[in-house]
Amino acid sequence: MPKPPPTAAPPPPTVVSIKQDWLATQTRLLSQDLEPSRAWRAANDDEKGNTNDNGAPIGLPDKAVDDAIWALNHRLQQHAKRVYSRQATRHIAEQIDQLYWDASNRAAGTGLEDEDEDGDDEFRGLSWGADLVDPKIISNLPPTWDHDAASQRQSQSYPTEAATYSDLVSQLKSLSSQKQALSSRVSRLKRIKNLLESFDTTTPSTPSGEEEEEEEEKPKLQDNLITRDGQIEKELQKMRMLLARVGGRVDQLQEQQKPKGKRKRTATTGNGEEPSEAAQDDEMDLDAPSAAFDGQRKLDVLFQKAFS
């Protein structure tokens, strides 16, 4: 047969649980049914045959005694349920625990004031409930137990415990320094992760059976990078098409401007002949700056309409 799995050890009892158990035990004792003792019943039985001066029997009948005891126990149980409830017991235990800690803190504070008056400020001691995970408290721990006269006497009486304390304090300070170093490294890595999350293109996969938590979408920088099928490539493709269309329109405008820019010279030369082609080209160059200016202005208007 397979061995059953070992059961986990119960947690150590707290002051509240100990006080609550003690109060529950006392309330059970107070809530027990009352019963006449055997000596009283024997004496009552002996008196049943006797009478007083008036002729009434001195002893009480058993039925009357049982009825009275039953009524008394019934009232007692009702009182116990109302007064000694579990909530009331828990509340009283918590009050006892709080009073215990307050008294301990007051005693520790009084001792610290006495040390301050004596001028001993090297070690102020630990208050009750001090968190030994706090780096400040760990740094204030004395490395050895014999930090004052009383502690020196205790250290001499219990050398093994004093050595154990020194080892534990050194380990605790070493672990505290390692924890601080790891905490600073974790915070630095988290900052780096937050800075690099914008460049992440993968979608996180969630395990089956678990619902995806709704998180705010962070802006991605990947859309602005030059990648295959990216946004910039699409915009460049649109720009190429637009430039082709604009180039075609500019060519049309230049073709339309050419007849207007040419000024045909009907004047003849001194010999009665028309001017040569070179002379005509020189005359056309005179109007070229104005035609180029009109074309540039129209091109600017087209670009402005296209991108507005």
TrEMBL record:
Alphabetical list of InterPro entries matching this protein: Sim4_Fta4 (IPR025207)
Gene Ontology terms: cellular component: Mis6-Sim4 complex
Organism of derivation: Rhypophila decipiens
Pfam family, one: FTA4
Comp. bias (Acidic residues): 274-286
Positions with biased composition (Polar residues): 199-208
Tree of life domain: Eukaryota
Protein name: Kinetochore complex Fta4 of Sim4 subunit, or CENP-50-domain-containing protein
TM stretches of this protein: none
Ranges of biased composition (kind: Basic and acidic residues): 35-50
Renumbered residue ranges of the record's region Disordered: 29-60, 197-228, 247-290
